[in-house]
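Journal club prep — side note

Before the paper discussion, L.F. wants everyone to see what a predicted structure for a comparable chain looks like in token form. Sequence:
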Amino acid sequence: MRIIAGQYRHRLLDFPKDDPDLRPTKDMVKEALFSIIGARIANARFLDLYAGVGSIGLEAVSRGAREVVFVDQDTQFIRSNIKKLGCPNVRVYRNDVPRALKILAARQETFDLIFLDPPYQQGLFAVSACFAILKPAGLLIAETAAEQTPELPAAARVTDARRYGSAKILFLEKKI
């Protein structure tokens, strides 16, 4: 697992090699994702939910995000990778996602880009809560199992959807 582009390009990330529940986003999917969001990443506030080892958020830092916030229940590898890369302007919350979203909303924090990658069996239950902290022109990127058709709130507008093997990436904006 590595950073694909930007300041930390080609740097390897630490990850648990023996964790059967770990489902890292493949390089091909990461490359496509960041190609689609393109220039939106520069100076963005980026939220990485169910961050795992932090590869998506760290890719965002590498490509010029102003600040990245990571949320996961196990933050050992996120913290290790942040230290290894020497990343500035990052925060890590060791918390479950629903509780972290409530805390961020209570603090009135907002984000330009949110990446939501829950365990596939849990579905995209957090989309509504994400929209509460997504800036008006922001983009929510959600990864699901390719065969899933998640129920989305009425406020969500799918602007793009891509399938990559067993994964599907949805790009969502708030309806105006």
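L.F.'s comment for the group: Residues 27-174 form a domain with the Rossmann fold fold (CATH 3.40.50.150). Keep this in mind when we get to the figures.
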